[in-house]
């Protein structure tokens, strides 16, 4: 497919204006289409706006019936509650955010360190049954997490990895490695192998050629891939809720989900925590928007 | 060899964290092992498998899952393609529109689930409030058997329509312009152009997106867990959710493992179809 994601997301006027005399009613149709798009955009974005609005509303306005769209009193108390415990000191949620950052960060680094060399090897060498190996790697990623978590749970209980950050880091690394390999293989394929051949003629070994010539060219690709791995681990919920239980280990998704357990739910706090949780993801996703198609299809679909 | 040195660490990790656990689950699926009772596991042959395959409960969950997967993926495909088509016809602001439409997809299912739960609340939810101000009746979105499954489909559609849109848009922008120009010289009708140029060229990529979504929807767990917790009754219990209940609430680990293995088989078949097709597409 001759598709570049750049084109799909580019801002420039890539298509010529359709001549106004093309057909009768062309303008009316255009207005209709714009109206339809606007309505759809509002519908898609309303929940996000409502979440942001709720996070800065006073509690009585959060539960107001009918709902208050405008003219509510603004407060930042909910955001304060996300980070500061009622009696002062750090809140459980802020610890969870920190845990999430550690788990997502370390597992991303590990997946990158394991995945990039493998991707390079798959791209450059005639590996036995290469296609089968690559398909096997990708299919591990499609396993239903609820199913995988049952034996993982027993395995972790046996070796004492239950309720530990290391356990989560390991499973997230295993779950991001297939993605890293597939995504990076695409990037390595784009770097001509001739660069390495030329370097080897100059007397470098294959490894040196990879290290000095190919790797620097892969840095943007590695960055984009790592950002996706970071987002996946940051958002992950199923393994987190079944493999961790204590507040000191628990990551943010189960911690936020835990806010609705009791008889009453502080929706303002849920909203504020969700905003704090989602904001970095949106920023990161914006940074890698050019690679979004490859990223969300686990590197399977690209240009 | 350098290739082996570079590849084997990643493969070993996958063997340890994906293949070994699955083999263990395969072994447990032939026993009556329970994670809480402890004690040695007794071999029960295919007992667990026949129990699951003949269970009316499982049949019901399979039907729920089927309705959910087909309903959600169909809605997403129609809407996603529609939005992509509308965006592709615009000359200005395409980048901004695309970025805005993509936001739901990047959110964690936890955030999405929680937020829709709040919005769909029967008493103070904003959706009912809006229906009220339009003079319409209130709907118990998450607490009635029939509406709960519909709500689940709606929320999943809200989150994943952007996925289909993104891929369809890539297909649409790749259609060579000269084809349309040639068609307009021939005074071909718009519907004819859509049917003979646009659709055949976008279809392969769209099918990839649909298959990908179908696999993901089949595995879905987190949204159900947060939004409805399977209820009311068992009306929104998908297969994934049922496996969880058998494994972690009933602690019938052997049965749950057999259940899981059967689900894995379904996923493997779906994934094989997907990968075969993907491969054909890449070579073609």
UniProtKB/TrEMBL annotation, chain A:
Looking at the keywords, is Transferase present? no
Supply the Pfam families for this chain.
Answer: BPD_transp_1
What is the name attached to this protein's record? ABC transporter permease
**Transmembrane residue ranges:** 31-52, 96-122, 134-154, 166-184, 215-234, 267-288
Regarding the membrane, this protein is recorded as:
Multi-pass membrane protein
Region annotated Disordered, chain positions: 1-24
Q: Which family does it belong to?
A: Belongs to the binding-protein-dependent transport system permease family.
Q: Where does this protein reside within or beyond the cell? A: Cell membrane
Alphabetized InterPro entries for the sequence: BP-dep_ABC_trans_perm (IPR050901), MetI-like (IPR000515), MetI-like_sf (IPR035906)
Q: Which UniProt keywords apply?
A: Cell membrane, Membrane, Transmembrane, Transmembrane helix, Transport
PANTHER family the record matches: ABC TRANSPORTER PERMEASE PROTEIN, MALTOSE TRANSPORT SYSTEM PERMEASE-RELATED
SUPFAM superfamilies in UniProt: MetI-like
Q: Where is the ABC transmembrane type-1 domain?
A: 97-288
Entry keyword Lipid metabolism: no
Write down the species. Answer: Micromonospora lutea
Automatic annotation (TrEMBL), chain B:
Principal localization reads membrane
Protein family (similarity comment): Belongs to the binding-protein-dependent transport system permease family.
Superkingdom field: Bacteria
Q: Which InterPro entries match?
A: MetI-like, MetI-like_sf, Sugar_ABC_transporter
- Membrane spanning segments where? 6-28, 65-87, 99-119, 160-180, 192-215, 256-275
- ABC transmembrane type-1 domain location is 62-274
Q: What is this protein called?
A: ABC transporter permease
Compartment(s) where it occurs, according to its Swiss-Prot or TrEMBL record: Cell membrane; Membrane
Query: Sorted alphabetically, which keywords does the UniProt record give?
Result: Membrane, Transmembrane, Transmembrane helix, Transport
């Amino acid at each position: 497919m001759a598709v570049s994601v750049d084109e799909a997301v580019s801002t420039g006027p890539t298509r010529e204006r359709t001549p106004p005399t093309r057909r009768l009613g062309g303008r009316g149709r255009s207005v209709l289409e714009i109206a339809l798009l606007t309505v759809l955009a509002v519908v898609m974005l309303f929940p996000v706006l409502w979440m942001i609005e709720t996070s800065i509303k006073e509690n009585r306005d959060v539960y107001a019936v009918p709902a208050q769209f405008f003219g509510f009193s603004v407060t930042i108390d909910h955001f304060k509650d996300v980070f500061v415990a009622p009696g002062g000191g750090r809140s459980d949620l802020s610890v969870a955010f920190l845990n999430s950052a550690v788990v997502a960060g370390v597992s991303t680094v590990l997946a990158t360190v394991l995945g990039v060399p493998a991707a390079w090897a798959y791209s450059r060498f005639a590996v036995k049954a290469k296609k089968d190996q690559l398909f096997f790697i990708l299919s591990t990623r499609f396993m239903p997490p609820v199913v995988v978590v049952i034996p993982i749970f027993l395995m972790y209980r046996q070796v004492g990895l239950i309720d530990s950050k290391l356990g989560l880091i390991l499973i997230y690394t295993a779950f991001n490695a297939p993605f890293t390999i597939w995504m990076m293989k695409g990037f390595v394929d784009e770097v001509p192998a001739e660069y390495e051949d030329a370097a080897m003629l100059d007397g470098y070994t294959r490894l040196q050629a990879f290290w000095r010539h190919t790797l620097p060219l892969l840095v943007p690709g590695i960055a984009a891939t790592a950002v996706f791995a970071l987002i996946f681990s940051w958002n992950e919920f199923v393994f987190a809720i079944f493999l961790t239980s204590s507040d000191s280990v628990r990551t943010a998704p189960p911690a936020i989900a835990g806010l609705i357990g009791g008889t009453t739910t502080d929706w303002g706090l849920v909203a504020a925590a969700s905003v704090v949780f989602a904001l970095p993801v949106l920023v990161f996703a914006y940074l890698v928007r050019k690679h979004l198609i490859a990223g969300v299809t686990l590197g399977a679909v690209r240009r | 060899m350098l290739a082996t040195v570079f590849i084997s660490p990643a493969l070993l990790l996958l063997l340890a964290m994906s293949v070994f656990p699955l083999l263990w689950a395969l072994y447990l699926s032939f026993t009556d092992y329970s994670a809480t009772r402890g004690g040695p596991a007794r071999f029960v042959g295919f007992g667990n498998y026949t129990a699951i395959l003949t269970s009316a409960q499982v049949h019901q969950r399979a039907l729920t899952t089927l309705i959910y997967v087909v309903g959600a993926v169909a809605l997403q495909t129609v809407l996603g393609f529609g939005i992509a088509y509308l965006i592709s016809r615009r000359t200005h602001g395409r980048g901004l529109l695309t970025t805005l439409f993509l936001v739901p997809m990047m959110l964690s299912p936890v955030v999405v689930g929680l937020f829709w739960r709040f919005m769909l609340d029967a008493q103070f939810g904003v959706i009912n409030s809006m229906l009220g101000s339009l003079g319409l009746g209130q709907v118990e979105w998450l607490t009635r058997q029939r509406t709960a499954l519909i709500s689940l489909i709606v929320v999943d559609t809200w989150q994943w329509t952007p996925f289909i849109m993104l891929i369809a848009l890539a297909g649409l922008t790749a259609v060579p312009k000269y084809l349309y120009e040639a068609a307009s010289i021939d005074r071909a009708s718009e519907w004819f152009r859509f049917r003979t140029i646009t659709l055949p060229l976008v279809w392969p990529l769209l099918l990839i997106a649909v298959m990908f979504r179908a696999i993901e929807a089949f595995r879905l767990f987190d949204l159900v867990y947060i939004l409805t917790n399977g209820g009311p009754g068992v009306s929104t219990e998908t297969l994934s959710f049922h496996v969880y209940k058998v494994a972690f609430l009933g602690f019938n680990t052997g049965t749950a493992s057999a259940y899981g293995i059967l689900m894995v088989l379904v996923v493997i078949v779906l994934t094989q179809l997907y990968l075969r097709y993907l491969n054909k597409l890449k070579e073609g």
